[in-house]
């Protein structure tokens, strides 16, 4: 797993996991964190594929999913841009947070913690620097 910077975005790919999902999730995360500005142009499919050493079809699939989520918009002859719609970004950020919470709770329940145990741990850990 190597870090690759492409157009201001950092990618870390794990070849044991589906590449399109990794590209998709890393771009979503960058948008949610504000690492990519609203309205910013992102690399072309070909440019990103070449930089990451993956097929253009893999990148195209991720870009199509981003457009379905209304996080990007393709402008004919100009390229692909992050949406200017701040509400779409807030929505995806909330969605990512809800997924993370659900994954966390599922894992904690699977190792035997109750909701009270989890709340106590969070209260205790909340006072520490992360």
What does it look like?
The chain has 130 residues and is α+β, with helices and mostly antiparallel strands. Helices cover 56% and strands 14% of the residues. It contains five helices and five strands. It has helices at residues 19-33, 45-52, 56-68, 86-110, 115-126, and strands spanning 3-6, 9-12, 41-42, 72-75, 79-82. The strands form two sheets. A three-stranded antiparallel sheet has the order 3-5-4. The chain has a two-stranded antiparallel ribbon with strand order 1-2. A hairpin with a 3-residue loop joins β4 (72-75) and β5 (79-82). α1 packs across α3, α1 crosses α4 (86-110) and α2 packs across α3. The longest helix has 25 residues, at 86-110. The radius of gyration is 17 Å and the shape is elongated. 15% of the residues are buried. The mean pLDDT is 91.
Distance between the termini: 24 Å
Indicate the proportion of strand residues.
5-15%
The overall strand count is 5
Outline the low-pLDDT stretches. Answer: none
- Sheet/helix structural class: alpha+beta
Mean pLDDT across all amino acids:
91
Shape summary: elongated
Largest sheet: 3 strands, antiparallel
Name the strands of the widest sheet in spatial order. 3-5-4
Q: How many DSSP helices? A: 5
Computed Rg: 17 Å
Give the proportion of residues in helices.
Answer: 55-70%
Written as H for each helix and E for each strand, in order along the chain, the element string is EEHEHHEEHH
Write the layout of secondary structure elements.
Elements: E1 3-6, E2 9-12, H1 19-33, E3 41-42, H2 45-52, H3 56-68, E4 72-75, E5 79-82, H4 86-110, H5 115-126
Antiparallel strand pairs: 1-2, 3-5, 4-5
């Amino acid at each position: 797993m190597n870090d690759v910077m492409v157009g201001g975005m950092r990618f870390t790919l794990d070849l044991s996991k589906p590449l399109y999902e990794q590209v998709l999730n890393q771009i979503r995360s960058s948008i949610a964190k504000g690492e990519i500005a609203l309205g910013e142009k992102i690399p072309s499919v070909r440019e990103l594929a070449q930089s990451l050493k993956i097929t253009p079809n893999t990148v195209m699939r991720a870009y199509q999913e981003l457009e379905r989520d209304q996080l990007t918009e393709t402008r004919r002859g100009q390229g692909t841009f992050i949406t200017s719609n701040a509400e779409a970004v807030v929505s995806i950020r909330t969605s990512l947070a809800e997924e993370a919470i659900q994954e966390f709770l599922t894992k904690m329940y699977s190792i035997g913690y109750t909701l009270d145990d989890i709340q106590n741990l969070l209260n205790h850990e909340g006072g520490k620097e992360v």
